[in-house]
Structures are given as structure tokens and as C-alpha cells.
Amino acid sequence: MAEINETPLPIDREYIYKRATLHKKISELSYRDAEAALAFLREWAEGKKPVSQLWEEVAAALGAGV
């Protein structure tokens, strides 16, 4: 079983994590700054920015206490 966990995936684990948690981060931001959260949601839905970039920007907005 240990061999399965060590097998590299054909896709970046960090990307998978960011893709899986982006909606939660946007939701969390919506309680602090609904307008910013909506802007991020629109960018994500319209495919204007890559997931990794959006995740970093949302995380920065949360860290800044927007």
C-alpha cells in the first residue's frame, strides 16, 4: 500500500489541492468582502485566470483581512 501513495500522479498534487479548495476560500472571503469574492468567482467561472493564480490571490485577500 505504501507504494501506491509514493507513485507520482500525472497531475500536480498542489494543483489538485488548490482546485479542490478554491470554492471554500471564495466562500470564506464572501463573509468578509462579498464584492471581492464575487469578482473572484466570476474570474474563475469565466476562465479568465488559472486556478493556481486565483487561489493565491484569494488566499492573499484572506490573509490581508480584506
TrEMBL record:
<protein>
    <submittedName>
        <fullName>Uncharacterized protein</fullName>
    </submittedName>
</protein>
